[in-house]
Design a protein that fits this description.
CATH architecture of the largest domain: Alpha-Beta Complex
Helix content: 40-55%
CATH topology of the largest domain: Spore Coat Polysaccharide Biosynthesis Protein SpsA, Chain A
Shape: globular
Structural class: alpha/beta
Number of strands: 10
Number of domains: 2
Distance between the termini: 63 Å
CATH class of the largest domain: Alpha Beta
Largest sheet: 10 strands, mixed
């Protein structure tokens, strides 16, 4: 396999402050056989104008527009237009090193490798000058897909940033879309886990991905839609049951409920949609098999139940 095409998909929404840096790192990649597919998710700032300057300069940068529908729909459009056997994704506020694609693509020299993961380096603060490397669950460089999947249930033993064989990623994405096409929080993580499950082998590379601190990111500060992470937990568990993958569903769901409950207590005075949070939490608690919880978690269950019912009373 000699320098196959790699498609880099970018979902952009109001990224005028980040898009130049993002596209500059791609325009200077040492791996030349790439196509950059940018899906503008209904931006209302100067994002589109900036992208078009790059489109005019670089023939391999392609621009597509959709009315604001969220990252899930944008990535689906990007996949539909990708012409290669290999795909990857880059957030506008993040960055590749100039040799990131080249180093990663070398990992596909063996047919059994379906995913090559980047060396994820996360910024430690807003200066974006110091980065901390992701700590995997293993020291192995080649990992069985099922092992990666198991070590991402209820934890993140692997991150999901890398280059995928398109057919593996599309299979996972379509399996998820069969159950849900809404723009819930954490869509990408569910698809990543399913990709691990469908993959044969996964290789860990030393190709850097810089995950930058962005004060304006939806993952920072108050996110009124964060509660929908629970909807994705339910979807993920339903898919796994249909695929006959078994794990402790009860504990995984309860752990996610506990975390969302913690966030609700932290943010509740500022949330404009508390009733939605209460409704989703109450729905998820009904899925919990109380008798399978430890004594400590039973007490936590009652604490959560009482809190959201009191909060519901005062909201009504």
């Amino acid at each position: 396999m000699l320098n196959p095409l790699c498609s880099i998909i970018i979902a952009a929404y109001n990224e005028e402050n980040n898009i130049r840096q993002c596209l500059d790192c791609l325009a200077n990649q040492t791996y030349e056989n790439i196509e950059v597919i940018i899906v503008d998710d209904g931006s209302i700032d100067q994002t589109s104008s900036i992208i078009h300057m790059y489109v005019q300069k670089y023939s391999y940068i392609k621009y597509f527009y959709q009315e604001n529908a969220g990252a899930l729909a944008a990535r689906k459009m990007g996949l539909d237009h990708a012409n290669s056997e290999f795909v990857t994704f880059l957030d506008c506020d993040d960055e590749f090193h100039l040799d990131t694609v080249e180093k990663s693509m070398k990992g596909f020299e063996y047919d059994e490798i379906d995913i090559v993961l980047f060396d994820l380096c996360t910024s430690v603060d807003a200066t974006n000058e110091s980065f901390k490397k992701f700590d995997y669950f293993t020291d192995k460089k080649i990992i069985d897909g099922k092992d990666a999947f198991i070590n991402c249930i209820g934890q993140w033993g692997m991150h999901g940033l890398g280059i995928y064989r398109k057919d593996v990623f599309v299979k996972a994405n379509n399996r998820y879309l069969k159950e849900n096409n809404q723009n819930f929080v954490n869509n990408d993580e569910v698809v990543t886990k399913l990709s691990f499950y469908y993959a044969n082998k996964i290789k860990l590379s030393d190709a850097a991905y810089l995950y930058r601190f962005n004060a304006n990111s939806v993952t920072r500060g108050i996110n009124k839609n964060y509660v929908f992470i629970l909807e994705n937990t339910l979807i993920f568990e339903e898919i796994c049951k249909k695929e006959e993958v078994f794990f402790n569903y009860n504990q995984v769901l309860f752990d996610d409920i506990r975390y969302v409950y913690y966030i609700l207590r932290k943010w509740h005075t500022e949330l404009p949609n508390k009733k939605i949070w209460i409704s989703i939490l109450k729905k998820c608690l009904k899925y919990i098999t109380y008798n399978k919880l430890s004594f400590k978690n039973r007490l936590r269950f009652f604490r959560i139940y009482i809190y959201i019912n009191i909060l519901e009373y005062f909201e009504n």
